[in-house]
Amino acid sequence: MATETQNGSSGASLEEPLHIESEAHLEDVVDDHNVVLVDFFATWCGPCQMLEPVLETLAAETDAVIAKVDVDEHQQLAGAYGVRGVPTLALFADGEQVEQQTGALPEDHLRDLIERHTE
C-alpha cells in the first residue's frame, strides 16, 4: 500500500496533524502510537477552522499524534465512530478509545486530556 504519508512512521510523535486517508489508515495510526487525538472535521465548519491552530500547537508540543478525518470525504468512517456533529474529537490511548467530545474545546482542556493519558 503506497498511501503511507511522509508522517506515517510508527512510534514517535508527529510535529503536525496527520490527515487520515481511510479506516485502515486510522486503525494503523491508533495501533502505532500510544496517544492519538482524532479530529473529525469539515472544511465548511467555522468551529473546526477555529480549532485548527490549537491542534497544530498540540501536535508540535505534546506526545500525542493529532489525526484529522474530513467527515465529508469519509462519511462511513465518521458514522462508525458515531460522529453526529463537527468538530468531534476522539482520544485513543494504547489502542482504545477513551474519550469523545463534540465542539471546539479550549487548548488547555485538550492538553489536559492528552497529558492524562501520556503519563
TrEMBL record:
InterPro entries, sorted: Thioredoxin, Thioredoxin-like_sf, Thioredoxin_CS, Thioredoxin_domain
Record: active site: 45 (nucleophile), 48 (nucleophile)
UniProt site (Deprotonates C-terminal active site Cys): 39
Domain spans labelled Thioredoxin: 1-119
CDD domains: TRX_family
Site note Contributes to redox potential value, residues: 46-47
GO cellular component, as recorded: cytoplasm
PROSITE patterns tied to this protein: THIOREDOXIN_1, THIOREDOXIN_2
Disulfide bonds: 45-48
Domain of life of the organism encoding this protein: Archaea
One Pfam family from the record: Thioredoxin
Record key words, sorted: Disulfide bond, Electron transport, Plasmid, Redox-active center, Transport
A GO term for molecular function: protein-disulfide reductase activity
PANTHER family: GEO12009P1 (PTHR45663:SF11)
Protein name: Thioredoxin
Organism: Natronorubrum daqingense
Lineage summary: Archaea, Methanobacteriati, Methanobacteriota, Stenosarchaea group, Halobacteria
